[in-house]
Write a structure and sequence with these properties.
The protein is an alpha/beta fold. It is built from nine helices and eleven strands. Strands 2-1-3-10-4-11 form a six-stranded mixed β-sheet.
């Protein structure tokens, strides 16, 4: 094992809770030093090598000089994901401007691919800052990701789920985030790391109760909207997405 604790980062969204559960309850505590933040922040830390491993948006993989997908778990979707959506007051064809979620990299890249190849519209894309959700209205739509999307689903007339659109467009699942390391890790470490990911998935009933929300069924979110296994079809979808990025 590398000397000292390995610095590791994860997104702080609800969808990561099952993967983090076993670690938060002592798993590999003598080997890992954790930090939690929104996806773009964790991604930046991995690129700068402030951390060695991150549960990060997969869109950053091409930006890493050296990258390794760690283990067999991810944050993916095989149907609508519910928490990565384009919200609007008008139908897709009438959208003229889209505010982009400042917390996202993969979702912004996915949106651009879908706008060009699936929805075939060319609105203005604007960066955003905290509170931008209140500016969604008229012909201005907004990409909202993560836990904030649950509340947003109750506010806007139209909700376009990006995972559902990708699956309809490609016939493949989508991977939003995966465990990525910027250096090769030992096989025994990867095996232990995978074990603790899998152990956390067994705690989903408990986690669904703990993090229940009035705005969305979190048990449904953990068991249907999010698909945690990084299987063959998801790896195929990931490779297609990365090829479209370039």
């Amino acid at each position: 094992m590398p000397e000292g604790k390995i610095k590791i980062g994860s997104v702080s969204y609800l969808n990561a809770k099952p993967l983090l559960y076993s670690f938060e309850n002592g798993g590999m505590h003598d080997q890992l030093e954790w930090e939690l933040d929104h996806p773009a922040a964790i991604a930046g830390n991995l690129i700068r090598k402030d951390i060695t491993i991150g549960l990060v948006p997969v869109a950053i993989i091409p930006q890493l000089r050296e990258s390794y997908i760690l283990g067999n778990y991810c944050i993916g979707a095989v149907q609508e994901v519910a928490s990565v959506c384009l919200f609007s007051e008008v139908p897709m064809k009438d959208i003229t401007t889209i505010l982009l979620d400042y917390q996202s990299r993969t979702s912004v890249a996915l949106l651009k691919i879908l706008l060009k190849n699936y929805w075939k519209i060319n609105p203005s894309l604007l960066p955003s800052s905290p509170g931008y959700e209140a500016k969604i209205g008229g012909t201005t739509a907004g990409l909202v990701i993560g836990d904030r999307a649950f509340e947003q689903r109750l506010k806007q007339k139209y909700c376009y789920d990006l995972a559902a659109a990708w699956i309809d467009h490609t016939g493949l699942p989508f991977v939003f985030a995966a465990w990525i390391s910027n250096k090769k890790m030992p096989e025994d470490f990867i095996a232990a790391f995978d074990f603790h990911n899998s152990k956390g998935l067994l705690a989903i009933p408990e986690l669904a109760k703990r993090y229940s929300l009035p705005s969305y069924d979190i048990n449904r979110y953990f068991t249907q909207n999010i698909s945690y296994s990084l299987d063959g079809p998801k790896r195929e979808g990931l490779q297609l997405f990365l090829s479209l990025l370039s």
